[in-house]
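Note to self: keep these together.
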Amino acid sequence: MVGRTGAGPVTPLYAGLFDDAALFPPGDLPLAEAVPAHRGHRTAWYAETVGPFLCGPGRLADLVRTAGTGPLPVGLVLPGGSAGPATALKEAAGLDVVSIEIATDDVAATVAQLAAELPEGIAAAVELPRDGRTEDSLDALAGTPHRAKYRTGGLTAGAFPPVGELAAFLVGCAERAVPYKCTAGLHHAVRHTDPVTGFEHHGFLNVLLAAAAGDRDGAVAALEERSPAVVAAAVAALTDDRVAAARRSFTSFGTCSIAEPLADLADLGLLHPPTLEDR
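Structure:
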């Protein structure tokens, strides 16, 4: 059986893959729009693809005041230098916090802080610094219950890691059985050059294929592929075992638009929205 199997339009390969980062650049959606939009995602046919609603400390107080009722699993995103998990969770009292993401220059110290401050039942992802010491950072995470987080884009060309750097991170995680999420830049399914900025964007399907590759050469080749047809064929050919292996490693990525990745998957023939007759 291959990766496109499943009882409905959403397959295990995409389950919970898209964390809702609508509040973050370049989307910057107002809370008054982002919260109902997220709840709409959670009742849509593609609801299984949607992860938590991500919120940083700058909007947390407003979210607490305006969240209202209805399902809203929240992921707290804490930048470097911000308050620690205990303080953030206190400020988020009343919200359904399911995860915390924390950026740090000292992964070992952050792991110790999480051990002291993070309640059971809340997942954590530690954003690694891109300082050339990725192996040391991953060693500090290995054997913990926490995910790694890696920045795959941003508002400058330098925010996009080269293929070799990203492949080394993915393989390093796999060697240590450390799951990971990505953040920023994965706006589309397949690697491409942005026609406006000229930035080289990684594709989220390229990252999934790299996660399924099992070695550095395979990861590099997967990340470098630019042909939508080649990428789509490789994804469709993934066995259930490779899908499971990829998703054990690559758990999710933050996207300011849930619609964009879904549209890409549909265009590639990898996701089949229900027709009116199916509803």
